[in-house]
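TonB-dependent receptor: structure tokens wanted.
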Amino acid sequence: MGRISVMVAVTRSGRLRHALLVGGSLPVLLLAAPAMAQDTAPADDASAAEDIIVTGIRETIQTSIQAKRDSDTIVDTVSSKEIGELPGQSVGEVIATITGATIDRANYGPTEVSIRGLGSGLSMTTFNGREATNGSGDRAVNFGQFPSELFNAIKIYKTQQADLIEGGVAGLIEMETRKPLDYGRRSIQVEAKANFNPYQDKITGEGAWGWRGTASYIDQFELGGLGDVGISVGVQRNDVNDPVERFYTSTTWYTCNAAVVSSSNCTEVTRQQGNAGTPFFHASNSYLNRQMTTSDRRDAIFGAFQWQPSPTIDINLDAQYSRRDYSERRNDFGTAEGRYNLRNVVIGDNHQLLSATGSATMQTISGLFMRDERYLGLGGNIEWSPSDRLTVSIDGGYSRTKRLDITRQVRLRTDPFNIYGVRTAINNQRIPYSVDMTQGYLPVFTYDARFNPRDHDVFSDDARLTRSQDGRTDEIWSLRADASYKLDGFIERIAVGGRWASRKFFGYSNDVNIDQTDLAVDRRVNLACRTPFPQTGFLADASSPSIGSYATFDVLCQFREYLGTEDPGNSGNLDSVDNAQVTEKTWAGYIMATYSGELGNIPVRGNFGVRGVRTEVTADGFRADLDVITRADGTIQLVATNDLTPVQIKSSSTRWLPSFNAIFDLSNKMRVRTGVYRAMSRPAPSALGAGRRIALEADPGTGFTSVTDAIDNIAATGSPRLKPTMSWNADLAFEYYANKETLLAATLYYKRFTGGLMPFITDEEFNIGGTSYMVPVTQTTNSDEQSDLYGIEVTATNRFTWLPGPLKGLGAKLSYNYAWSDFKTQDIRYGDVIESNGTMTPGLIPPAGLSGYSKHTLSLQGFYEVGPFSLQGIYRYRSRYYQAFTSNNTQLRYVEGTDTFDMTASFRVNRQVDFRLQALNLFNEPRIEYMPVVGSTRNVEFYGPQYFMSVRVRLR
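Answer:
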């Protein structure tokens, strides 16, 4: 147990991470070595052990090791013979226990999975062998919508073979639900789980408790001459709260001229000026605090039907449905003009702003965000074996995700006068302040002593009500056919097959803005809708001082008082120039041979083959003329007219993906695996859109000085001609299986990528105010530059059976991955850019790597199991990484490295009943983001720990 206390200390401080990478693995490896040496036990003892029935952690480890041992490629897996035994609250948490896999956390749990330090955009995920959709616009799967209790196996294929669905440069994640006939017995299982969230307990009037209930039923029936039938059904209701305390900035950052002291917004530095030596620093448009009260309810239903009318026919049908209703009550406060009147600027080594003084309009924003997300998956498969040699199968699938986000918010700003028309002490809408970003990752703002952010009276101006509606629909139809034929000799089997898929993605945004200028109305609504700050200890866990509290308002009250309704609805026309409508059609075919023979005296087996993939993309969008609107302050804004012109852009690619895998059985315990293959990963569907984004304002509340100034802020929402990222890959793995519960494996891997990502400019003609302008529009393209990635991953698993007495129940699993890459992703605003004439202009910001790429990832799992009691602790570390937004046409975002610690304890009363206690994020690891360079804080989020207590009942 001393080892666990060391992990606790490391996680709390976060200062010994790199030492842990080296030293933390030594105890596991040293303890594993004696276990391996003990493998010379007499044969009769081993035989007796075969009759022991194992459950829980041991059973999961044994099943996972055996699945890896039996695989034909380099695979890591977590699996269990029993439903509900996978170690995690969601599928994402389960995947994070697999070697080389790491998760990206949000307040409601894992959102994305990276393999070998490579982001989710370079992975492929299949659900029962089919692609699954999501509501984010990328190809990642929202693992939070799938309850782990309804799965029995998750595999990660690290190398490719010709019969696997293409799309996984990093790897392929395969999620499997149990087939009822294969399960072989009846099972009725019910689990009730209570959730306690300490952060929710800090919120006034809210309860800290939530709940989660899961039930599943599996059974088989003999129908005589009609064969055998199996059914399975699983349902879950998840009703919890996921509060978050947040500091954030806008997603647009500027390079400010440090040599010019401006009394307005800072002067922007161009690439040419910066390369010529002009000093600059990075600043955001706005800096805001956000307090949130959340509600999260998810329902899931899974079903499967299996029918074997004869020994040669196997028919399977499966269906999945989930719905998530999520809401956030938001209370924001901060600066609306982050680049205004900056003085006494101190700049860091990475051109990040370290400290400054300035003055800015302060604002409070009350908001309500609501999300309704629904997933539907349907699939059917027929497998026919007319002879012992021939097997034919046909599989069809449908997957659809619909996401609807509605946000209502009301903005109020400071003014020289308060709501009663009395001049404030500062007598200006802009409040003097200073900011210090050196005290920790959370910037410290100090305001003029005459300004009180908790005073509702001072927020009296620029009232704006906004109703935003964002919708996304992602839909996939797929059909595949496979056939395999057994042969005699070195080639044991030939397999051929084909796959067709049609994916359609549609995304839109619709904003309704209503400006309110009647000061008497502002005063009435301000007085009617005030609320006390809704929680205690806001951002109290940050390493630097926080604001604590500020003036807040009830957003629904504001909508009622201003408009007479809580929801004015959308604009009535969802067509817009920034919509994304993408159709992607895929045709793929393969041929693969499985072989087995000897190389000298060493048995060798594996497969080789080739897969051909044809992808056709059609992106539909709109273009529109722009009207020039002159504002009251003399500035202008551009607004698209309602006269929309359809635009369609087509693109296609054909890729050939050869693969070769070999397994050398050096002994019954030692084997070497090799794989050489070519792989591809397609861009996110939303990144292929043909839309254009027209910025209405230079800063919130500030117009443009001229049309020339405004057109610099017209940007592409996607790049339809983006091609797949391609890589040649080589893997070499060594595996040693000392016994059923001991594994030592190491894999060296190499990837050569063709085509980094960088911005390029094209000139497009726009009619603006009746005059034709050539507008430089920035998109993303594939570069011809080649890049490399080298890596090593290590897995060590052992139960310490060589220890005396009750200590035999101790065990551990270590998974570590190191990767190095020179892949480059350029910043869309300030990175290297290809000009419209084809020349390349060097950027001001160093490029990032692959999205999701972390040099170091570590998972250290310790467990103790004796009799009916088990205890498990999992420490996870991931070094800093770049994470792209859904669309590629955005600035660079970095996520600071994290280390988290989770614990689970369980007690089995008997074979039917057990109790569990689980703690997640035990030491409250925050999420910290930088933009557009490391050290320039963009986002800080605290979620707090979560605790779960459950009872599970099984009936046979």
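Residues 2-955 form a domain with the Maltoporin; Chain A fold (CATH 2.40.170.20). The two ends are 36 Å apart (CA to CA).

Cheers.
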